[in-house]
Amino acid sequence: MAFSIQSIFSNIFSGLSADFKKKNFSLYGQWVGIISILLCLALGVANIFHASIVIVFSIICIVQGLVVTLVEMPFLLKICPFTETFTNFIKNFDANWPRCGFYLLNAAIQWVSIAVMATSLIVVACFFTVAGGCYALAAITHQEYLKSSIQVTGSPDSVEGQIGQHVVRNVL
User: Fold this and answer.
1) What does the domain layout of the chain look like in residue ranges?
2) How does DSSP assign 127-167, residue by residue?
3) Which pLDDT value is given to residue 153?
4) Burial of residue 150 (number of CB atoms within 10 Å: 0-12, 13-18, 19+)
5) What is the pLDDT of residue 6?
6) Residue 57: burial class (beta carbons within 10 Å; 0-12, 13-18, 19+)
7) 65 phi and psi, to 5 degrees?
8) pLDDT at 129 over 50
9) Mean pLDDT of all residues in the chain?
10) Could you give the C-alpha distances from 162 to 3, 16, 166, in angstroms and in order?
């Protein structure tokens, strides 16, 4: 019993619109962070072919993308075997202020890359800055830290959702 692509995209976009209707900056930060993951991986690989010290920042960018993936999608910590120390380190970012600091530190690292050469890594720095700003606004306005409400497998009441959750439970 396979999921249709249409139902998956329908669930994603309905969850996305529900998240934006909540007007919570931590959700905005999470979505900007997810976009940052894609940008980190794509632009990190694209800039790795420079014949200068930019290669170092490209490698850092790829690593940042992988770490942000684990921060924004913590279920991957259960799937992938990591040390307890690393897992606890990632779990420290389950609040607005720590995530704000995490993203702003990542942004600062990528902003430093401009000193070497202006490359497309500036886009990653901008997105990290925006994500950090969203988490900072959430913390300043005392909004609670929320996670996205997207259910890729469907709502728990639907047959697809129940099957999807059962499959995920069996995998974990």
Assistant:
1) 24-166
2) HHHHHHHHHHHHHHTTPPP------TT--TTSHHHHHHHHH
3) 46
4) middle
5) 64
6) buried
7) -60, -40
8) yes
9) 82
10) 12, 21, 6
DSSP assignment letter at 2:
P
- Cα torsion 21, 22, 23, 27 to 10°: value is -110
Give the list of residues 6+ apart from residue 34 with CB closer than 8 angstroms, or none. Answer: 72
Contact between 89 and 71 under an 8 Å Cβ cutoff? The reply is no
Max Cα-Cα span within the chain: 54
Give Cα 82 to chain centroid, integer Å: 18
Separation of alpha carbons 46 and 55, rounded Å: 10
As a whole number of angstroms, the distance between CA 32 and CA 102 comes to: 14
Helical ranges in the chain per DSSP H: 5-21, 25-47, 54-72, 75-79, 84-91, 96-116, 121-140, 159-171
Dihedral over alpha carbons 140, 141, 145, 147 (to 10 degrees): -120
User: How many residues appear in the chain?
Assistant: 172
Summarised one tens digit per residue, pLDDT across range 28-67 is 899 899 999 999 999 999 999 888 899 999 999 999 999 9
Amino acid (1-letter code) at residue 148 = S
In whole angstroms, what is the distance from residue 57 CA to residue 89 CA? 23
